[in-house]
Amino acid sequence: MNIGEAATRSGVSAKMIRYYESIGLITPPARTAAQYRVYAADDVHTLRFVRRSRDLGFSLEETRELLALWRDKSRASADVKNLAMAHVRELEEKAAELKAMADTLRHLATHCHGDHRPDCPILADFAATPSAQAKA
Amino acid sequence: MNIGEAATRSGVSAKMIRYYESIGLITPPARTAAQYRVYAADDVHTLRFVRRSRDLGFSLEETRELLALWRDKSRASADVKNLAMAHVRELEEKAAELKAMADTLRHLATHCHGDHRPDCPILADFAATPSAQAKA
DNA sequence: ATAAGGTTTCCCATCATGGGAAGGTCAAGG
DNA sequence: CCTTGACCTTCCCATGATGGGAAACCTTAT
């Protein structure tokens, strides 16, 4: 199948498939006489794997490791679990950070009248010295 | 004061100060005969404002709007509040997304032995067809 | 034969930040 | 007066993952 079909089937854009190939994440497929890339069903599996990994927030470098583990039939499941749990912690940290920002801002907003008057504690906080600021 | 001192006092790197100037976020300061940028105390306030805005997850474009509102003494606080609350919702959405990813992954990991054996439901899920996957 | 649509490579843009080079400047101390 | 070191200047490049688009080529169906 051509790259377009592989893209549709895997949910990875053709643009990204070429990019993944260029950085060595996936192996270059065969080519037709006219240089068209030709993919097999198995390549679509790999692409779906990558897609899934990306959807779960793994970077391409992490995805590369996961792919290697996936292909290594003799790897220990502990290796996979460690990588996954480390990632879980990162995700949870980032989520907590965003939540903290939202909480700070929401708190500031509750003290803002939100009417036609100009004075607003949100901007006042932004302009204040760091020591006097609401904690993020 | 020179850019270095402004950077230290505001918590914005000299590199970023120059960048903010280049994109018109902040106004170009005066220069010495030798082309050194000269900042006033007020410029440091502005930089701190930007820093604070960034720390709370606003993009530079959003920061630009906030700065404009800050400087516009006649703006309605409702405008600020609307902008802030829209951002709060964005932050909370992103946080929820990350949390969902973490939950999915954590769930998959609980079913992974995490020992020397090779079989691992995490990778199995990654390789599965989308319809059969744990929900993110 | 021609048109439509797929494919190729290549370059550019995003967003916010950092790194580093090559060169100019300033202040302190010998 | 000159050197040294710490600043400053501009300019270019890199990141990470993705998209946009151009110019050229291929394929397939009419």
UniProtKB/TrEMBL annotation, chains A, B:
The organism's place on the tree of life at top rank: Bacteria
NCBIfam families, per the entry: CueR
Gene3D superfamilies linked: 1.10.1660.10
Residue span, HTH merR-type domain: 1-69
Alphabetical list of SUPFAM superfamilies matching this protein: Putative DNA-binding domain
InterPro entries, sorted: CueR, DNA-bd_dom_put_sf, MerR-type_HTH_dom, MerR_fam, Tscrpt_reg_MerR_DNA-bd
Nuclease listed as a keyword: no
Keywords: Coiled coil, Cytoplasm, DNA-binding, Transcription, Transcription regulation
Compartments where located: Cytoplasm
This protein's record includes keyword S-adenosyl-L-methionine: no
Transmembrane segments: none
PANTHER family associated with the record: HEAVY METAL-DEPENDENT TRANSCRIPTIONAL REGULATOR HI_0293-RELATED, REDOX-CYCLING DRUG-SENSING TRANSCRIPTIONAL ACTIVATOR SOXR
PROSITE patterns, per database record: HTH_MERR_1, HTH_MERR_2
SMART domains: HTH_MERR
Name this protein carries in UniProt: Cu(I)-responsive transcriptional regulator
Coiled coil: 81-108
Main subcellular localisation: cytoplasm
CDD domains: HTH_CueR
